[in-house]
Design goal:
The chain is of the alpha/beta class. Helix content is about 35%, strand content about 25%. It has one domain: Vaccinia Virus protein VP39 (Rossmann fold). The protein contains nine helices and seven strands. Strands 3-2-1-4-5-7-6 form a seven-stranded mixed β-sheet, sandwiched between helices. α6 links the parallel β2 and β3. The longest helix has 16 residues. The chain is globular. Pfam families: Methyltransf_23 (PF13489). This is Methyltransferase domain-containing protein. One of its GO terms (biological process) is methylation.
Length: about 250
């Protein structure tokens, strides 16, 4: 099943890649479907290396952007911790949803793709992307929204609470901490994620245990306002939305 899905999506993308890159960026809003987001990202990342473009285009079939966007406040200043190629911030900027976005990552090559995509969608004035050695080097803000999407499962277990804490400290009072990662629930969805990560990173990851982020959030005056398990294709996602207490 896993390989069949990959082949079908891959054939569709290969057909698109035969055509010259277009300067036209499809419009998107919060109701965009994965297919619409695929077309958006494929156009937005047409100036980037092929691997980043392909992965950015295919990701909406796996990552539930539609579940994340509603929790980003309009006109917000957003910090995306572990932003990779900047797909979330690029999408938010294209939607005219945010006033400013800062992405940071410990890997430099994806940030070049993020900057190229920001320029392609005309958002270079509001999006910046910074190479950091750790979350502690990220801009302090504080920010209206801090996002951490599919990051912690790549962090050694002994360092996860510290990474979470560094990100949480950058949320302003009343602001939102948006956390999404792959599910740790036993079963095929967890295994599918492990296999995918091993194929792309040669890393057999260890997911974040259930309940861990809720415990860490409580230590940093973050109250859980929304929790959801999201199945997508053969994968599973854990979404947690926290709000920093005012007092």
């Amino acid at each position: 099943m896993h390989s069949n899905i990959k082949r079908k999506i891959g054939r569709h993308l290969h057909t698109e890649m035969l055509a010259p890159a277009s300067a036209s960026i499809p419009s998107v809003d919060s109701a965009a479907t994965p297919a619409q987001l695929r077309r958006f990202f494929y156009a937005a990342y047409c100036d980037t290396p092929a691997p980043f473009r392909w992965l950015s285009a295919i990701r909406p079939y796996v990552c539930p952007y539609d579940k994340l966007v509603p929790f980003i406040r309009d006109d917000a200043e957003v910090l995306d911790v572990g932003c990779g190629a900047g797909s979330l911030l690029t999408l938010l900027a294209a939607m005219k949803k945010i006033r400013r976005g800062v992405g940071c990552d410990v890997m430099a090559p994806p940030l070049e793709s993020a900057r190229a995509a920001a320029q392609r969608v005309g958002a270079q004035g509001i999006l910046t992307f910074e190479h950091v050695r750790s979350v502690a080097e990220a801009p302090e803000g504080p920010f209206d929204v801090v996002a951490m999407v599919d990051v912690l499962h790549h962090v050694p277990p002994g360092s996860r609470s510290d990474v979470f804490a560094a990100a949480a400290q950058r949320v302003k009072p009343g602001g939102i901490f948006l956390y999404k990662d792959m599910t740790a629930r036993p079963g095929g969805r967890r295994l599918a994620h492990n296999i995918d990560d091993y194929i792309f990173t040669r890393e057999w990851v260890e997911q974040v245990p259930e309940g861990a982020v809720e415990t860490w959030a409580g230590d940093h005056r973050l109250a859980l306002v929304h929790g959801e398990f999201i199945p997508r294709l053969i994968y599973g996602h854990e979404l947690r939305v926290f709000q920093r207490l005012e007092h």
